[in-house]
Amino acid sequence: MINQGHILIINPGSISTKLAIYNYDIANNRLDMVDETLMGHSGLDGGIVEQLDIRYEDVDHFLTSAQVDIQIIMARGAPLRPLDGGTYQVNELMLDDLRTGKYSRHASNLAALIGARIGNKFDIPIYITDPTTTDEFEDVARISGVPGISRKSRSHALNIKASLRKLCLRLDKDYDESSWVVCHMGGGISVAAVRNGRIIDVNDALLGMGPFSPERAGALPTSGILDLAFETNPDRHSIEELLSKESGLKGYLGTTDLQKVEARIEAGDTEAQLIYQAMVYQISKEIAAMASVHKFQMDGILLTGGMANSVSLCDSISERVQALTEIFVEPGENEMEALAQAAFRILSGVESVKKYSQG
Fold it and tell me: Do 129 and 150 sit in the same domain of this protein?
């Protein structure tokens, strides 16, 4: 690899694609963003893979207009088979799993598919790092209580690990030799027990576990799920949509915007106050549960994600769990920076690249 150059970051959303170019300088240990854009697309009809041509052409145009040489491409990691955390070079097996939607039909599937086209055109290597299906569970964490049903590791692994690395650097602690509870709070909420850089336990942040979030249901009474499935008789897709996109704050209060909820509380809305405090209550319970994974011996609790920008939310959680250990806050999603930092680690030789293979 060249010791100085540029990194392209690709992070697709449902109707847009976020792109960034970072400049890296290994000799001087520098990594700086030089360009970032949120690119809207027209004509995004059909399924995820059907959007590939339009998104690729827009990204290619952006890259041409930027007039920089790219040495490495980092794509947001889509849901794949369960993987150890770390950085993986994109290969044909991974691309085939993404094209066919073997594990998910999510907009992030397009990141590596777009990157592969760019990489093939300009002969640039492409990687992903810490996808949502990062799975580093200890065996005991997989047991659900029902034979045939295993607990799944689906979390905001990219931001959990990147924010914790940043905190450890600031505190002069060894990321690979420390124990933490990290709570990522965004559209979904992941509360993870992280030991020596590995997520050894975490609630399923998509369906069925942990606290409710701005749009997700979290853990539910089993009898309620059975009533929903058998008495109202919706199809599976409708239930999944309800539990992953129409529940939580949105289900109770009609909005996923935490600032609007806090404004309603300021204005004296008692229902908003109750639901807000219930979310704080559930987040705090999950933090304490993950602290027990460490036998309550840990270096700290980290609050991160977009909702960690709310001082009120962080203070409310801290009030409940401060007796456990010291609490730190690193607000924001930080996905683009996290991908750039991963590229810098492999360019610097600090981290080895892994191979994506059959499970």
Answer: no
Asked if residue 280 lies in contact with residue 320, where contact means CB atoms within 8 angstroms, the answer is: yes
Q: 0.85 exceeded by the pTM?
A: yes
Q: Where are the alpha helices (DSSP H) in 181-328?
A: 222-230, 236-245, 248-253, 258-266, 270-293, 311-321
- Return d(Cα 325, Cα 160) in angstroms, integer: 18
DSSP β-bridge partners for residue 37: 19
Who has greater pLDDT, 40 or 137? 137
Q: What digits encode the pLDDT tens for the residues 205-215?
A: 888 799 999 99
Q: Looking at the 3D structure of the chain, how many domains does it have?
A: 2
Range in 228-232, 256-260, 279-283 with the lowest mean pLDDT: 228-232
The pLDDT confidence band at residue 174, using thresholds 50, 70 and 90, is: very high
Residue 159 near residue 339 (C-beta atoms within 8 A): no
Sort 297 into a burial class: Cβ within 10 Å, 0-12 / 13-18 / 19+. Answer: exposed
Domain that holds residue 248: 144-325
CA 176 centroid distance within chain: 20
Closest CA to 82 of 59, 102, 108, 62: 102
The H or E element that residue 88 is part of is strand 87-89
- Give the CATH number for residue 51: 3.30.420.40
